């Protein structure tokens, strides 16, 4: 049985405490009124007084109607910046919460695939996978609360939820969003979220329950139940994962869409989930656990890390190249915004999620060397967090982005919670399944 070390537990609590303090700081320092934003913008434009004066002189003879138009545009800009700055701590929380929840979902999908494939190499890793997927429940609860916060207008992350966007004649009316209102409306949106989160968590609960029951069973009935359940789950997962990516990520940009987006998001969190399995496995091995896990198991996990990283790059390039080459204004704007305002993180994600995994894991021998795998794993996980950052932040905070205290604190909190939940779950059952039909094959797996 695994024992959760006091040092690791303390580390997780420290991360959560730092995270809570930093998240609180982010909310406390966000602007509370339009006047705060007016002051901020005035300070930013300090030193350009002459330009304002000459601009004012230029408009001395301008008609009142035009002056009113300029004032209205200024008011609209200030309100827009106000919403962006208020969104900043919410968006930081949202990205980190979604990322860690999807890591556990990616590990769950990988576990289900192993069950359906009746893979002989992986059963010795099942308890590690189940430990990581245990985070799905608390992660889902917190994430659902964030969805409700958006629905009750505590933030402006989803502009299609704004008042009047579907009402003809309202100042916020948006014809394109109104055309999607049959799908993008809060009741239907939150019902879909409840359905997806519930089914994912039910599968995780019952698959683990059957796996533990199989240890004490006299036949393979529990294993067969898991096989059938996993097959059904994967069918549901493929559909729900695509819809989830539209609902929770793509809809922050409701004027833009990509038919590849569901696959793209899947590749990002799937490789992150596999990487988390690898990192936890290596940690447990370093502490003297998982004696049946050998270099061949490590090698195979590294192959998946490498292969899915290449798959993610293929999808990234396919989505980017086709939209960029077609140069249709309403489509290409998505990438122009990210290249112009998020250039460092946009290209940085490509380097971290493709270039580094290629360099570090393309060699067969490197796939077995722990320190190289850990380095590659850290780059992959940070790179895919940045990938989710790039998907959410441009639409919610615009050019007001910064990886500062709110972003780092949100990451620290959810990382600490992830460590605590996962390693606490690992203490609840033996790390090696006893009566899995393929356990002996897995113990003696060599490649």
SSE arrangement:
Elements: H1 6-29, H2 34-44, H3 49-58, H4 64-117, H5 126-133, H6 136-151, H7 175-179, H8 186-216, H9 221-248, H10 261-286, H11 295-326, H12 329-341, H13 343-361, H14 370-396, H15 405-426, H16 439-443
Overview of this protein structure:
With 447 residues, the chain is mostly helical. The protein is 74% helix and 0% strand. The protein has helices spanning 6-29, 34-44, 49-58, 64-117, 126-133, 136-151, 175-179, 186-216, 221-248, 261-286, 295-326, 329-341, 343-361, 370-396, 405-426, 439-443. Helix 4 packs antiparallel against helix 6 and helix 6 runs antiparallel to helix 8 (186-216). The longest helix is centred in the N-terminal third of the chain and has 54 residues, at 64-117. Mean pLDDT is 91; it is low at 50-60.
């Amino acid at each position: 049985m695994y024992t959760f070390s006091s040092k690791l537990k303390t580390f997780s609590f420290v991360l959560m405490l730092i995270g809570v303090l930093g998240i609180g700081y982010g909310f406390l320092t966000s602007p509370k009124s339009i006047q705060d934003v007016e002051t901020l913008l005035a300070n930013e434009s300090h030193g350009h007084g002459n330009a304002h004066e000459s601009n004012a002189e230029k408009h001395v003879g301008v008609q009142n109607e035009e002056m009113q138009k300029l004032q209205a545009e200024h008011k609209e800009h200030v309100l827009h910046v106000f919403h962006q700055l208020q969104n900043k701590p919410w968006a930081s929380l949202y990205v980190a919460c979604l990322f860690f929840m999807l890591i556990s979902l990616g590990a769950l999908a990988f576990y289900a695939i192993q069950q359906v494939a009746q893979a002989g190499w992986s059963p010795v890793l099942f308890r590690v996978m189940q430990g990581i997927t245990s985070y799905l429940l608390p992660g889902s609860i917190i994430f659902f609360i964030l969805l409700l916060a958006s629905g009750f207008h505590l933030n402006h992350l989803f502009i299609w939820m704004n008042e009047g966007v579907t009402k003809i004649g309202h100042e916020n009316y948006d014809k394109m969003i109104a055309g999607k209102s049959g799908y993008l409306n809060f009741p239907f949106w939150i019902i879909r979220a409840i359905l997806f989160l519930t089914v994912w968590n039910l599968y995780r609960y019952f698959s683990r329950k059957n796996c533990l029951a199989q240890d004490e069973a006299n036949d393979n009935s529990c294993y067969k139940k898991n096989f059938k359940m996993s097959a059904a789950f994967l069918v549901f997962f493929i559909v729900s994962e695509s819809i989830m990516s539209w609902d929770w990520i793509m809809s922050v940009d409701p004027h833009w869409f990509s038919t590849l987006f569901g696959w793209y998001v899947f590749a990002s969190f799937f490789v992150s989930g596999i990487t988390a399995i690898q990192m936890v496995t290596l940690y447990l091995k370093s502490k003297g656990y998982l004696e049946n896990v050998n270099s061949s198991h490590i090698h195979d996990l590294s192959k998946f890390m490498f292969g899915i990283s290449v798959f993610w790059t293929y999808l990234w390039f396919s989505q980017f190249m086709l939209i960029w080459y077609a140069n249709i204004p309403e489509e290409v704007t998505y990438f122009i915004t990210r290249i112009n305002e998020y250039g460092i993180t946009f290209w940085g994600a490509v380097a971290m999620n493709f270039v580094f995994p290629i360099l570090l894991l393309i060699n067969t021998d490197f796939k077995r060397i722990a320190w190289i795998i850990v380095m590659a794993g850290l780059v992959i996980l940070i790179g895919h967090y940045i990938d989710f950052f790039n998907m959410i932040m441009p639409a919610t905070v615009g050019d007001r982005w910064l990886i500062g205290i709110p972003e780092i604190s949100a990451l620290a909190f959810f990382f600490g919670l992830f460590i605590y939940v996962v390693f606490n779950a690992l203490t609840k059952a033996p790390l090696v399944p006893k009566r899995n039909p393929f356990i002996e094959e897995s113990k003696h797996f060599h490649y």
